[in-house]
Design brief:
Protein name (chain C): Urease accessory protein UreD
Number of strands of chain B: 7
Keywords (chain C): Chaperone, Cytoplasm, Nickel insertion
GO molecular function (chain C): nickel cation binding
InterPro entries (chain C): UreD
CATH architecture of chain B: 3-Layer(aba) Sandwich
Number of domains of chain C: 1
Radius of gyration of chain B: 17 Å
Number of helices of chain B: 9
Order of helices and strands of chain C: EEEEEEEEEEEEEEEEEEH
Radius of gyration of chain C: 18 Å
Largest sheet of chain C: 11 strands, mixed
Shape of chain C: globular
Order of helices and strands of chain B: EHEHEHHEEHHEHHEH
Strand content of chain C: over 45%
Helix content of chain B: 25-40%
CATH topology of chain B: Rossmann fold
Number of domains of chain B: 1
Chains: A mainly alpha (224), B alpha/beta (225), C mainly beta (255)
Strand content of chain B: 15-25%
Helix content of chain C: under 10%
Oligomer: heterotrimer
Organism (chain C): Streptomyces canus
Distance between the termini of chain C: 42 Å
């Protein structure tokens, strides 16, 4: 197996449905909370340290062989917004399809059978990484990166933001991404011993509230 | 006999012609084309023409959520459970070509929930002339342009005009008003497409969608063993 | 209560049980140092208790614990006499405030304390752990106010964990103030709001008939959790506006 599989998995063009989701950016733009590169950076930083950390730890735990059903339940408990639970399962199902086509695995097949409508995306991401022969740290990085790359590219479309500014935001967040992946990995190792309560559960009230507001709009560009 | 199909649920590879239980899945026909060329109106007309003889369903890909789906619901061309809207994140061409996962889930869910189905029409969001459907999503595709969009479109070509299995030049009734030369459009299309068929249609005429419906029936006859 | 150099440790405990005559008895009601529990007049089958702060705090280095055990069929309503203010201490180090609530089957707890205010320079870690039986009922309010009027907040971290019949239904942490992970005051998390609160309502009937997710104004929402529970989450510019939203939500959920 090859480390380069991480590049395939983390590629924004990996056909797993992410392009239709803004990670809360569409709601934040409409509410006037994201207006440019600076507020995008602050948004992404907040998302990285909350939802991003949780996703990252879930994904890393799945690579370490923690029961995906327990991880899926833990993800539910860490996602109060039903709109976000639905989006996470939708994306998990889409990722499952791409992952099974890319790295066929009996574990992925079993999870697909258990969750025909999709398990939480980070759990599927972890099992996909495992199927690709990647390590827990790789999945942690991938999930953490996705937590900020999605809102960033969505904001380029929503605000016609200069794409170089948006990419600069992601580059500036890199050191924090390193720390999040470290923390997620550390938590995942504890989960392997102590159970899923050792997972972080950092939350962001406005992401939760914004997701419900967004889900109620009659007209929107992104699915979440 | 397809040797590569998976029996695991949910259905695995996209282009597989069978459902997880081994039965043959519905024929999937995509309709693409620029904004305002009459894709949704053509879908509505096809539903009316075919709904009594076929079990069919529609997936829409809106730029803005549900607008096209809601048009079809308002027009009551099919029961609401047979119409599904996919959200495309401002990139309708991505959802039908580069990352077809949401559309595949929509067609599979329709087959699970209202099937068995003979035909699923997948309508793309209005896009530009380069947008085409992935072969992993549809079995055949129709590209819809209209006379009001400029009679030089067939000559300019592009993947949709050149490679679609059927090209519709729509709203022919408007040609005199917008100064479009139908004969020239037909000749240019023929030059671009060699043997691939072209239909010139006006949904306001008596013939309406008849030619396209006949083409769909022929596709279905070839698809069903 | 013990007060080694590092800070005050105090644990208040109460046990509520069905008194067998249609009411609720409190066989254990133990105050400790700054944590004083007072029984007040109840109504009907329900016992009422007030948590009265006998001194300010928690200060840096303090560790307070409140434990309430609601036994089968008992009903308790707990409030507090005033807001709790986290203050900086003489000693460095964080303060801890742990709340442990257990409600057995057919028991009911209304836990409606006043706000927790994070004063400038303070550093407090609050955990609330709730264990319910399958047929227990709960109403719990949690309000956090970042800074006294016109003041920068201290550091406040909180974790709220709800288990119903052994299954974790909600596990949520929030960290804010100086030194909290980046972006806490940005557009994804609080965006300048200085009051954040939650209302957690658990009823067995929510398993079959969950609440419908909806917005409550522009900065609050009520949602069904993945279990027999509803959660209201609200942010507001200040404590008063937050309370107004949560009160309205509670009235709606109780109707």
């Amino acid at each position: 197996m090859s480390r380069a599989a991480l590049l395939v998995l983390a590629d924004g063009r990996f056909p797993a449905g992410g392009h239709a989701h803004s990670g809360g950016a569409e709601a934040a733009v409409k509410a006037g909370r994201i207006t440019g590169a600076d507020s995008l950076e602050s948004f992404c930083r907040g998302r990285l340290h909350t939802a991003g950390l949780v996703s990252s730890a879930l994904a890393a735990s799945a690579v370490l062989g923690v029961d995906p059903r327990l991880l899926d339940e833990a993800a539910d408990a860490r996602t109060p917004s039903p709109a976000l639970r639905t989006a996470a399962r939708k994306l998990g199902r889409q990722l499952m399809r791409a992952a099974r086509a890319s790295w066929p695995s009996t574990e992925l097949d079993a999870l697909a059978r258990e969750f025909p409508k999709g398990a939480h995306q980070p759990v599927v991401l972890g099992l996909a990484a495992r199927a690709a022969g990647l390590e827990a740290v790789d999945a942690a990085y991938c999930a953490a990166y996705e937590s900020v790359s999605g809102p960033s590219s969505a904001t380029v479309r929503l605000l016609s933001l200069d794409p170089f500014d948006a990419t600069g935001v992601l580059a500036r967040l890199s050191p924090e991404l390193d720390r999040i992946a470290d923390r997620a990995l550390e938590a995942a190792r504890r989960v392997a011993d102590e159970g899923v309560d050792a997972l972080p559960s950092a939350s962001a009230p406005l992401l939760e509230i914004g997701a419900e507001a967004h889900a109620a709009w009659p007209v929107r560009l992104f699915a979440s | 006999m397809h040797l590569d199909h998976h029996h695991d649920t949910p259905a695995a590879l996209s282009a597989d012609a069978h459902r997880p239980d081994g039965t043959r899945r519905a024929l999937r026909i995509g309709l693409g084309g620029p904004v305002g060329s009459g894709k949704t109106a053509t879908v509505a007309a096809l539903c009316r023409a075919l709904r009594d003889e076929l079990s069919l369903a529609v997936v829409t890909n809106d730029i803005y959520t549900r607008e096209d789906a809601e048009f079809l619901l308002r027009e009551a061309v099919l029961p609401p459970e047979r119409i599904t809207a996919v959200e495309t994140g401002a990139c309708p061409h991505t959802a039908i070509r580069d990352d077809i996962s949401a559309n595949l889930e929509a067609v599979e869910d329709l087959e699970d929930e209202v099937g068995p189905l003979d035909l699923i029409l997948v309508e793309s969001g209005g896009d530009n002339l380069t947008a085409t459907f992935s072969k992993g999503l549809v079995d055949a595709q129709i590209f819809v342009i209209d006379v009001a969009g400029g009679d030089d479109i067939p000559r300019k070509g592009g993947p949709g005009v050149t490679t679609a299995d059927l090209l519709i030049v729509n709203k022919t009734d408007l040609a005199p008003y917008v100064g479009s030369d139908l004969a020239r459009m037909a000749a240019d299309a023929k030059a671009q497409r060699a043997e691939l068929p072209v239909v010139l249609q006006s949904l306001r005429s008596e013939a309406g969608v008849t030619d396209v419906a006949d083409w769909v029936r022929a596709q279905l006859a070839a698809w069903t063993p | 209560m013990t007060a080694p150099g590092a800070g005050v440790r105090a644990t208040a405990r109460l046990v509520a049980r069905d008194d067998g005559r249609g009411g609720t008895a409190l066989p254990v009601l133990e105050s400790d140092g700054p944590l004083a529990l007072r029984r007040t007049r109840g109504s009907g089958t329900e016992a009422r208790v007030m948590l009265v702060g006998a001194m300010s705090g928690p200060l840096g280095g303090d560790h307070f614990t409140v434990e309430a055990d609601i036994r089968e069929g008992a009903r308790l309503r707990l409030g507090s006499a005033a807001a709790t203010i986290a203050l900086p201490g003489q000693t460095k180090g964080e303060a801890r405030y742990d709340v442990r609530l257990t409600v057995a089957d057919d028991g009911e707890l209304h836990w409606l304390p006043e706000q927790l205010i994070s004063a400038g320079g303070s550093d407090l870690y609050v955990t609330t752990r709730i264990d319910l039986g399958a047929t227990s009922r709960l109403v719990l309010r949690e309000e956090q106010v970042l800074g006294r009027a016109g003041e920068e907040p201290g550091r406040l971290s909180s974790r709220l964990v709800l288990r119903v019949a052994g299954r974790t239904v909600l596990d949520q942490e929030l960290a804010c103030g100086p030194g909290a992970p980046g972006g806490w005051d940005g557009p994804a998390v609080l965006a300048g709001h200085r009051a954040v609160g939650q209302l957690l309502v658990v009823r067995p009937e929510f398993a079959d008939k969950p609440v419908t997710a909806q917005m409550l104004g522009e900065s609050a929402t009520v949602v069904p959790l993945a279990g027999p529970a509803a959660l209201v989450t609200a942010v507001a510019p200040d404590a008063l506006l937050l309370r107004r939203v949560l009160d309205e939500a509670l009235a709606t959920l109780s109707a």
